[in-house]
Specification:
- The chain is α+β, with helices and mostly antiparallel strands and 195 residues long.
- It has one domain.
- The chain has six helices and nine strands.
- Strands 1-2-5-6-7 form a five-stranded mixed sheet. Strands 3-4 form a two-stranded antiparallel ribbon.
- Helix 3 packs across helix 4 and helix 4 crosses helix 6.
- The longest helix has 21 residues.
């Protein structure tokens, strides 16, 4: 009896969440998104997902929520390894940003309980260090609609292919390095190949 009551209460709560989401109740939508992100922050990475990408997903923060969309930010840093006494970049911050944006978008579109968003916006930031100090700048913006996401092969496509299909904006410098995006974004640059 107790188990049946617990199951019934859970179903009742889930139905109430769905009703509130369908009515566009922003506090409920925000609560669902926040709870999912809290679970992702404490969870283990999905099998086969690189640890750096999972760490980037775990930095996800909500910037805005609407009745049918969510806008989040994440952090990405390049990957380096020591080769003959020198640090060598193996993945650029932009390559990591694409992988993080692809995974974050997939999770927000398909793994939120009790709701299905129509649109997800993911901004990815990285750290710049120069004579002026350390600053955090947005290097990639991905604006994904559910209809475009249905056309993506999430298991077979590379992060670059996924983000380009979903609608990505970034800028490249003359040496192929990621440049900060202006507040209104920039147009897509040529594809990013290896480091």
């Amino acid at each position: 009896m107790l188990l049946a009551y617990v199951v019934w209460q859970g179903m009742r709560a889930a139905n109430k969440y769905r009703e509130l989401v369908a009515a566009g109740d922003i506090p409920t939508i925000r609560l669902i998104v926040d709870e999912a992100m809290a679970e992702w922050r404490s969870g283990r990475p999905p099998k086969g997902l690189p640890p750096a990408v999972w760490m980037g997903v775990q930095t996800m923060e909500v910037l805005d929520v609407g009745p049918d969309y969510v806008h989040v930010s994440c952090n990405a840093e390049g990957e380096y390894k020591m080769v003959e006494g020198r640090w060598l970049e193996t993945k650029s911050p932009l390559q990591e940003a694409m992988a993080i944006a692809a995974k974050a978008t997939e999770m927000l579109l398909y793994e939120l309980p009790h709701m299905k968003l129509d649109r997800v916006v993911v901004d990815v930031y990285t750290t710049y260090r120069d004579a002026a100090g350390v600053r955090r700048e947005r290097i990639l913006a991905c604006d994904a609609g559910r209809e475009d996401a249905r056309q993506v092969d999430w298991d077979e496509w590379t992060p670059q292919q996924i983000t380009e299909r979903l609608g990505v904006r970034y800028r490249l410098g003359e040496h192929g390095q990621a440049l900060p995006l202006s507040p209104n974004g920039e147009t897509v640059q040529p594809p990013v190949e290896g480091p």
